[in-house]
Specification:
The structure is a single chain. This protein is α+β, with helices and mostly antiparallel strands. 19% of the residues lie in helices and 41% in strands. The chain is built from 3 helices and 8 strands; from the N terminus they run E-H-E-H-E-E-E-H-E-E-E. It has helices at residues 15-26, 36-39, 89-99; strands at 2-11, 29-35, 51-58, 61-67, 80-86, 105-111, 119-123, 129-134. The chain has an 8-stranded mixed β-sheet with strand order 2-3-4-1-5-8-7-6. Strand 6 (105-111) and strand 7 (119-123) form a beta hairpin. The radius of gyration is 15 Å and the shape is globular.
Length: 139
């Protein structure tokens, strides 16, 4: 089941500043703030304070933010995506199989990551950037 579709902002190395800015503007609560040093094994020193993932709660609406991966060029205009949050690997696979048909580009195939049992990032046939992220709750 889809549990949410959130806006995901990608910043150009100034993620910490953006988190503080949007927190203030939206009067949001920061519910998660993870830096590269917290999740990337052997993280280079110059990348340690980049935001890997931040989540802000704006009256029950989730806004997510991360810095662009330094391995990629930052591109204004493609730095806001829709993140589909699902509660099962099966739903993630079903959505991926449907949305990625004739995709313009697969940025990351649906796969297990250290933060999700099923995550994908791609540009669909209409040029829309999607992230699919399975968030499993503990039983």
């Amino acid at each position: 089941m889809i549990t949410a579709i959130n806006t995901y902002l990608v910043t150009d190395g100034n993620g910490k500043e953006a988190v503080a800015f949007y927190q203030k503007v939206f009067k949001a609560e920061v519910t998660n703030l993870m830096f590269w040093k917290d999740g990337v094994p052997d993280c280079p020193k110059e990348h340690q304070d980049l935001v890997l993932n931040a989540q802000l709660d704006i009256n029950g609406i989730r806004l997510q933010i991360s810095d662009e991966n330094p391995a990629f060029d930052y591109k204004t205009g493609s730095n806001m995506t829709a993140a589909i949050i699902v509660d099962s690997i099966e739903t993630a696979q079903e959505l991926y199989d449907g949305l990625s048909v004739e995709a313009q580009q697969i940025l990351m195939e649906l796969q297990e990551t250290f933060w999700s049992p099923a995550y994908a990032n791609f540009i669909d046939k209409y040029g829309m950037i999607w992230q699919i992220n399975a968030e499993m709750t503990e039983a």
